[in-house]
Amino acid sequence: MNIRTAATAALALSAALILAGCSAGTEDDSMPGMDHGSSEQAADVNDADVTFASMMIVHHEQAIEMSDIVLAKDDVDPEVMALAEAIKTAQGPEMEQLQGWLDDWGVSPDEHEMDGMDHGDGMMSEEDLAALEAAGGAEASRLFLEQMIVHHEGAVEMAQTQVDEGSDPDAVELAQTIIDAQTAEIQEMEDLLASL
């Protein structure tokens, strides 16, 4: 098992243990890592909800980082620039919403560090980001679109898992919103790629 896989497994295990404690129904519902007042709110939350919120925050962070790289360039296709702005505008507030839920559920920040995410989740490697940083003009536009399509596909897959397995209705609703929005953006990016 590599470090990335182990980190992902550790997150899932810690989430499951925390949530198992919440649903145990004992008199003392204050669990380590959860504040006392969150137990009622967390009653309908399962480990899929926690994993979804945790992973999607990190996923969105990278999408915004990729968008910032492109937006800092002077010679990128204007439609690509507009798309990068739209991604930042949509994903920033979603990150705040996801973090708010984790706070409400009593999940501390160190429990949702997702260093274990990899290309299978649509995440770019350091080398991918460096290539995007170094590229200019049409090459930067093409690379951004290709990378963001893969990134969005990973997000759609994660969100579909939440729709299928999640318990919190608000988190399921957001997951469906992400599926709809990012599927549409994938099509837009594929059309843009074909026109470059």
From TrEMBL:
Gene3D superfamilies the record matches: 1.20.1260.10
Keywords: Signal
Keyword Signal: yes
Superkingdom of this protein's organism: Bacteria
InterPro entries in alphabetical order: DUF305_CopM-like, Ferritin-like
Residues spanning the signal sequence: 1-20
Domain DUF305: 49-193
PANTHER family: SLL0788 PROTEIN (PTHR36933:SF1)
Name of the protein described by the UniProt record: DUF305 domain-containing protein
Organism: Gulosibacter sediminis
Phylogenetic placement of the source organism: Bacteria, Bacillati, Actinomycetota, Actinomycetes, Micrococcales
